[in-house]
Amino acid sequence: MFDFFPSRSLTIYLAKTFVSRILAVLLMLVLVLQMLDLLSESGNILAQPGNGEAELMRYVGLRLPQLIARFLPYAILLATIITLAGLSQNSEVVAMKAAGLSAHQILAPLLLSALAFSLFSFAFNERVVTRANGTLKAWVDADYGPIPDDPTLRSNLYLSDGQNIVRAARVTGEGRNTVLHDVTYYLRDDNDMIVREMRGLQARYVGPGWMLDGARQFDVGPAAQTTLTEPVLIARDLNLAQLDFRRVDADAETLPQLAASIDELKAAGRRTSELEGKWWHKISGPLSAVLMPLLGAVAGFGLARSGQLLARSIIGMTLGFAYFVVDNAALAMGSFGGYPPLIAAWAPFVLFFLLGETVLIRTEE
């Protein structure tokens, strides 16, 4: 063993204790959240004619990978605090320090275990979660009914036509054969206030613009509704390239697939900073599990006789949850173009790594 690790027996003991608590906490979180989520969605699932227990189980099977991937870092954080708080309370940390081990040596088995979970999380996201995301999204868009066998199907899109907005419940077809279904067209004035709303069954691309069939028009000023007997041309500034850009779902694509999508959009002259940030986050996100033992380590170190175990545990939880808040905020800023994609995905990781090291060193002193 390297000097960075304690003895073989102690390494195995700490790793087994930590891993068992990770699995226990993750199981508890996933079961509770899955139950609550199923209760909230079961009405929508069973509202579809013909759906029953099999569809409920199908929903659980598709939702479960998402919950595991999302809450694994939280489980590692809580398991770190539970493990180290227990070791500190039983004076095991004091015994290890008396044997000459530093705080980093005590944390080494936990960090190694967290790294293994990070690698598992990355592979799990690429092989399982992306497929579950794509299937579940298509099923939800079909109102939990039969999923249309159409690879070009897209749903619930909001698109800009200058200052006006087009909403389409579904989009089918490609190129000049593209059709918008259940269309709502919002016309806005210079103050971005809606002055007219037009609803239609479908809109066919005629380039430029879209021909809306079966339209009903509502004028906000006089509060008058009119049924139009003839098709009407709308959204002259809405082109097919905007629809192609909206088709990329980063959560449902693997790293190579998303990289290829980004290259295609770049070649078309589209802005890709949001997708690039999500590409990098597919790597930094799973790796965040390695940070959790470092951020939660404050719960196990410090003077055991000070009686501040609860306060140290709260500090550890605060640091861990603060990371997730900052990480989401940075990713959102990257989507808006406030940060470069690489910075948006990795800056929180580096910042909290340095913060965790600082807190650990200060606490140990």
From TrEMBL:
Q: InterPro entries in the record, alphabetically?
A: LptG, LptG/LptF_permease
Keyword vocabulary terms for this entry: Cell membrane, Membrane, Transmembrane, Transmembrane helix
Q: Which domain of life is it from?
A: Bacteria
**Compartments where located:** Cell membrane
Acyltransferase recorded as keyword = no
What the entry lists under Pfam families is as follows: LptF_LptG
- Membrane topology label: Multi-pass membrane protein
A GO CC annotation recorded here is: ATP-binding cassette (ABC) transporter complex
User: Biological process GO annotation list?
Assistant: lipopolysaccharide transport; transmembrane transport
Record's keyword annotation contains Secreted: no
**Primary place of residence?**
membrane
Annotated membrane-spanning segments are 12-33, 67-86, 106-124, 309-326, 338-361
This protein is called what?
LPS export ABC transporter permease LptG
Starting at the broadest rank, the lineage of the source organism is: Bacteria, Pseudomonadati, Pseudomonadota, Alphaproteobacteria, Sphingomonadales
